[in-house]
């Protein structure tokens, strides 16, 4: 029996802890019994049972031949939990859910380690400690302190027990049902990655929602999320975006949050969908469980009122859907059927006189042409909304296409809601929220289609696979410490990277010779281990146009500390400046960045990130995401740049991170991009310090 | 009696139209009577009254000496409305609310004009046609087809009747009460600006909310919005942001929507607050009516659960609030009072064991140091949320400081809601939404403080005043058509603008001479009336460094069509490129833009807009808003630019628009900004065509 089976489909459940009035053990037994699960045994020193639940003083006292206890739910004082686990493990219990708090989150990580060691000796797996329990509605299993939620297709996994509880309490009102719920608290043993893996296979779950503050292992999370997202939608709320958010996360869980931008990029790479908060999560769950796939981006809005339709159309366009006008043929058909004062553009306004038939027939008609529809209805006290909802429901059924509804608002719209729910048409508080969900569905369909297309090419499979499980042999950097810039350039060139033409000179006369050799304007840069930011100290001189100037420049650079000579490169005009870089994230390890380079890097923060390495397709996507992307196509009469060459650089830099694990940071900024290719013009490489590698490496 | 008084506090109301079962006249009378207003008279040919309401066949038949009818609500067929207005006008009715549709919105603008003409002959003012009626809860006055809303401090004005109705229906559930409601439909007579002016003075209204699709007159709207926002919060939902949104607006109201970015800038200038949709509008209304001013940006979050607090803290930081950690003193006091497992950072986590006293005492303590607090509570079925809400309410009362609450979620939190509402503590669905509102309150406090500070300086008064009511004498441009670039530069220089040094040459040898005179690299630009985009056709040559090259350049430019010679300017290196421009908005007239210049203009869309003219303070604010702002402070070792000089250019360009109303578009791009000042390096000026000025001008 797998741990997932023991956890979610136990034959018998033991509740360990006092079952006196007001005690947690009592609440757990009540929840189990009221939820319809009766194979329960109470374990407590007093052998106190309630409501016919039999009790034993320890697992060892369970009668031979009794139904095996697969799952123990533990709510005893913190100091006793190790013994409980030993006892349960010896008796063959397979999973323990530990509600008890007072471990790592309260500053006692050693106590938590003892739990894990005790359990692992017996092959006992743990949820928690410091958690709010679990739920499997399909097994009538509710060993939790929280509201028993309605049954449905969503599995919800929450690092925070309280937030999990809020979601369960809100579910009925939000019209979302759950298959499973897991609060995993400190995640001492089983954690985020394990649940993602288990839920991927779970046939009772069609959508997985996850609330996390920190992740246990960035790369493993990325892999598990991608595997899950390939077969069902994964919706993630990740808190701790801001500084103060991170601080709270820090104090809350005792571990460091990854930088939010990297997390965001990793989620996008995995195909998961990020929700900003609980309301958006509910909206997405409703949409993904109730609607068929949105196989395109053309949205029709059918309404009985202009105002809310315009708000929805606005949101649709900013969310990536297209509210295109109907074709002439469709428009003619609509004109034939509707009164002349109705608007037959898109939004299609049936006006306040809209009938059930209007909604049904118009929706059926437009869905012949559009990929999805939003049915908007603003009700007044003197209109009955239920028949209109029927019309919408009939159209959804007849076409099999995605139809979202927003019947507004308050009391007058209330009659419509059960009609829509019964027909499987999701209703949203506003049209804006409905289109946001439709856009997310369309986005997921696009991602799945792209992933499929990428699998077609063998070459892509290989590189996509290496993205997740890099089999790149690890090599050593050729220096002890951090290299000087010309050394790093030399090394990159040896590896086949396109580095700018250059002379590394140690004397003024060599500088003059170099200037003469290049025969055009040159740039001069100080080379020194002691200068960190060259430009801040005047360590870069541009537009040097004669050997004499070069001599003067050399002397000036020497004066400000160019101890290791001067690097001379030709000036590039009209090249597009791009940054490609590597950094090391504490959660995900090497991260590749592509951005608008030069001064734009600092001011515009025009940057695209991924966990490294990336495939060519992904590298190309990163480049395409930049605001500065049009510059590469040529502006002001310049020819387009060689984007293929740039893509190559991105792919290969991203693999560098895994070939050379000692690289902590690599900045290629700027890379000059032109019609003729790329030229890396500035290199900064920092390696992990060898003395305290343990400390520095992720 | 003002129209506003007659509309909102009529002595007697006439309902004009059939009162048979199911007819609109019947609904209106029912609504009036059920709402508690009994001075009603029915006007219809059959003299049909109901429920004791007396009836006459026309206004002329009203008995002499009867209570005067100040307000008529008209629901007769479209063709009859003119006669009704004539009749009502003759009888001394002061305002008519026309529910009847079928005018401009249905393609009959002439019919609508006839209404206005008929009414104005008698000094009768109109609301509508094609509207949903009005409400004044403080006068028990509900002549509307929509849900009668709860009474409160918010006045809501809606261009869309249906959307207005949705808001009224939702109000009870959202916990927002209304003083007044106006649906003004086509706005044939009284419209947005009139209501803003009237509500500014209305003592029963503390917050004004407005839903608009199009505005009647941009400048008048801006002035009225600013006047209102100076005395009470103005919350605006404006739809029609996107292309399809605008299209729907267009078909809906028969008038053209202004570009959304300009509208957004104008709203910011006026001090109004833009809401993205109805839910946000409700949130803001709840916050602004229930909370005192937020006089700073330091927010304390007091919670019983980490997860939702982190989500709220994240949102706070992105909304401009600061979730700073407590001072050492406060932290010590918190540590003394709370259990060791509570988090005394910020968010302050009282954990699930939080009591009423914990919430009260901790909130009182932190509000000594912070400007506002968010009290978060996540409830479970086994906790009673009402006492905890009491603790929050007591702290709000004791401190008088802004305290917002988010008690979550569903059934377990329901007991808390009436406690909070009774104590005047606004509750929000999520902590994120609560902080968004607190941030808006803080933003408004900042704006009011800034406006006050600006009023202190006499000089600023003058220029701020000129922003709203420009007394700039209008002058003529010195050319018939559009000027050539060197002509426009000459003209700007005459007006005192800093224009780049230049030579306008007509022959190759003049080009060589110019190159020699400048003695450094030059730029050469084709001058021609027929070339629209110089760079696209190779009409700009940069980095020309010798007289020979200049001769070659001249010939090349001549060959591609430089019919009017070549403009030669020195090359600027290391200058920051800025764009300053004027354009003409259909709603607001002249608009001033400042942006990152050169290639950044096209790719980064880093632009700040205002309705012209602007004061120095406002011009400076525009510059400070740019993402590229840090460039002006000097990067890569360059000295900071002369931002004062740039501010001057912005102010003076913005006034140019009013001095020379013939300017349709002016692009100064780039302006080279350096330590030494500004140099306008490229000018493009388009005037309104003189043939069809009527058509082109706003």
Which tags fit this structure?
homodimer; 698 residues; alpha/beta; Rossmann fold; six-stranded parallel beta sheet; six-stranded mixed beta sheet; 26 helices; disordered C terminus
In short:
The structure is a homodimer of 698-residue chains. The first copy, chain A, is α/β, with parallel strands linked by helices.
Protein chain pair with the most extensive contact, residues per chain: A-B, 105 and 106 residues
What portion of the residues of chain A fall into strands of 2 or more residues? 15-25%
CATH-level-4 superfamily name of the largest domain in chain A = Succinyl-CoA synthetase domains
The number of helices of chain A is 26
Secondary structure category of chain A? alpha/beta
Number of domains of chain A: 5
């Amino acid at each position: 029996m797998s741990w997932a089976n023991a956890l979610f489909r136990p034959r018998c459940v033991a509740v360990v802890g006092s079952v006196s009035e007001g005690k947690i053990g009592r609440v757990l037994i009540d929840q189990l019994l009221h939820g319809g699960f009766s194979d329960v045994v109470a374990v407590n020193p007093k052998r106190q049972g309630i409501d016919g639940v039999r009790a034993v003083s320890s697992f060892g006292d369970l009668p031979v031949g009794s139904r095996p206890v697969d799952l123990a739910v533990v709510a005893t004082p913190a100091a006793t939990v190790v013994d409980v686990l030993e006892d349960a493990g010896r008796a063959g219990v397979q999973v323990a859910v530990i509600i008890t708090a007072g471990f790592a989150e309260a500053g006692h990580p050693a106590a938590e380690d003892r739990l894990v060691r005790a359990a692992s000796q017996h092959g006992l797996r743990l949820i928690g400690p410091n958690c709010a329990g679990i739920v499997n509605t399909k097994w009538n299993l509710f060993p939790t302190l929280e509201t028993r939620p309605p049954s449905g297709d969503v599995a919800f996994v929450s690092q925070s027990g309280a937030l999990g509880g809020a979601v369960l309490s809100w579910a009925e009102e939000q019209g979302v049902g759950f298959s499973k719920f897991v609060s995993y608290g400190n995640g001492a043993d089983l954690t985020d990655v394990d649940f993602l893996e288990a839920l991927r296979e779970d046939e009772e779950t069609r959508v997985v929602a996850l609330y996390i503050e920190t992740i246990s292992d960035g790369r493993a999370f990325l892999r598990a999320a991608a595997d899950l997202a390939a077969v069902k939608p994964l919706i993630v709320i990740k808190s701790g975006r801001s500084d103060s958010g991170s601080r709270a996360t820090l104090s809350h869980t005792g571990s460091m949050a990854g930088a939010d931008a990297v997390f965001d990029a990793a989620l996008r790479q995995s195909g998961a969908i990020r929700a900003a908060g609980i309301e958006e999560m509910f909206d997405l769950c409703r949409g993904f469980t109730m609607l068929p796939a949105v196989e395109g981006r053309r949205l029709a809005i059918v309404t009985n009122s202009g105002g809310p339709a315009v708000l929805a159309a606005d949101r649709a366009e900013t969310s990536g859907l297209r509210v295109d006008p109907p074709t002439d043929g469709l428009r003619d058909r609509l004109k034939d059927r509707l009164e002349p004062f109705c608007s037959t553009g898109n939004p299609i306004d049936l006006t306040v006189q809209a009938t059930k038939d209007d909604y049904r027939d118009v929706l059926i008609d437009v869905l012949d042409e559009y990929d999805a529809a939003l049915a908007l209805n603003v009700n007044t006290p003197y209109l009955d909304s239920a028949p209109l909802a029927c019309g919408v429901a009939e159209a959804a059924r007849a076409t099999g296409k995605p139809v979202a509804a927003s019947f507004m608002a308050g009391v007058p719209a209330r009659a419509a809601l059960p009609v829509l729910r019964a027909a499987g048409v999701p209703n949203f508080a506003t049209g804006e929220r409905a289109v946001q969900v439709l856009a997310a569905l369309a986005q997921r369909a696009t991602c799945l289609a792209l992933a499929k297309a990428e699998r077609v090419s063998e070459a892509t499979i290989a590189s996509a696979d290496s993205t997740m499980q890099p089999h790149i042999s690890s090599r050593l950097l050729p220096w002890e410490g951090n290299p000087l810039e010309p050394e790093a350039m030399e090394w990159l060139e040896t590896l086949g990277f396109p580095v700018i033409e250059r002379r590394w000179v140690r004397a003024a006369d060599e500088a003059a010779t170099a200037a003469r050799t290049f025969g055009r304007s040159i740039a001069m840069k100080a080379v020194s281990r002691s200068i960190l930011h060259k430009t801040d100290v005047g360590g870069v001189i541009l537009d040097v146009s004669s050997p004499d100037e070069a001599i003067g420049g050399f002397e000036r650079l020497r004066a400000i500390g160019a101890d290791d000579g001067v690097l001379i490169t030709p000036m590039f005009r009209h090249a597009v400046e791009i940054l490609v870089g590597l950094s090391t994230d504490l959660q995900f390890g090497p991260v590749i960045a592509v951005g608008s380079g030069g001064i734009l890097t600092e001011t515009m923060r025009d940057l695209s990130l991924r966990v490294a390495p990336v495939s060519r397709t992904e590298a190309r996507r990163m480049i395409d995401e930049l605001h500065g992307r049009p510059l590469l196509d040529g502006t002001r009469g310049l020819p387009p740049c060689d984007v293929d060459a740039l893509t190559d650089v991105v792919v290969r830099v991203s693999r560098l991170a895994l070939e050379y694990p000692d690289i902590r940071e690599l900045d290629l900024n700027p890379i000059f991009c032109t019609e003729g290719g790329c030229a890396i013009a500035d290199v900064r490489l920092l390696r992990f310090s060898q003395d305290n590698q343990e400390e520095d490496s992720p």
